[in-house]
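Milestone M4 deliverable, item 7.
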Amino acid sequence: MHSVQVFVSYSSHSYSTKMYYLIKLIKLLRSFISRDVNLLLRAYLVYVRPLLEYCTIVWSPSLIQDIEAVESVHRKFTKRLPELCNYSYVEWLKKLELQSLELRRLHLDLIWCYKIVFQCVNVNMSDCFNSESAKNPFFVQVFKIVVRF
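Output delivered:
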């Protein structure tokens, strides 16, 4: 019996994701004659950001270079909006009422953890968490996330 092991790094995935979605972003921006910020923002939120956030529970980047690679797509979009070119990235996000992709991934991870803990999904909680309530003298339920491969 032969087994094949394939090692795909998150860095290579993040880089290929970044390049693919940068191309999508450029095509999106070129397809609109209008430079209305609200129209371009809506198009980005409908066509590009969902693709960047798809299955982030599985492939969420952990290295700073990978996080920045994916975040750069978000940054490049906001930088190309005509009214916001003189502001910093954080100011762009505030003016557009957007969150960074890193913060959105964290939010989605917390929602997923909630669903696992409260059995809203068919995932065995013991596969993902270790309960340490027996060690806690204050009887507060504490969970520790465990990554198993």
